[in-house]
Amino acid sequence: MSAPGQLRPVPRRSTAELIADQLREAIMYGSLSPGDQLGEAELAGQLGVSRGPLREAMQRLVQEGLLRSERHRGLFVRELTPGDVRDIYVARLAVERTACELIMRGNRGEALARLTPALDVLAEAAAGRDRTAMSNADQAFHRTLVSCAGNRRLERMAQTLLVETRMCLSVMQGVYPEPEEILEEHRRLLDAIVEGDEERLLALIESHMVDTVERINAERAAAPAPAHDPEPGPGG
Predict the structure, then answer these.
(1) What is the pLDDT of residue 169?
(2) Which domain range does residue 64 map to?
């Protein structure tokens, strides 16, 4: 692994990769909502790209599960069910647990230098009780956590999972914790890294994910059962 500040080659990225990044961001922040159809001509015009790399980028997102393809209709932003939400958090636990193990056995100092400012941003959002800012800061903290592991494959997996997490926020609206609770959960994660307590860190990251899934299950159990099995709506 390169030392901090050391110059290293800049990775070359294809146009399709850059387009895929923009599409993921549009899905994450709601510019493209669950159920939206992606018009190829319109998107190519908005992005200022040709259709070839755009198609390649969209197929990448189909493979990642962010888009779905309907024959004779086109591509749509995928709609998530409560079951999808649970699956997302199970996958996130696997990725972030591994990232935590790598951090604790690697350069903890570098991880702390990056995670401390991320926690400060989360604290500022919590103080303002701004749920949008909280969501942004929460995701940024977890993205930084995985990035600190220094494993590009984990980062790629986390990238898709965090986009899906953002997509499912409407499913979680009734179970999203109070800002102070979210902040305290993340502060405990950082404290475990400071103390070098790997066992505690892994227990905390598991609790963080499992508690969310349990809240979702409880919310779903409390909801009245539908008279029939409808198509999942946006975020649901």
Answers:
(1) 65
(2) 15-77
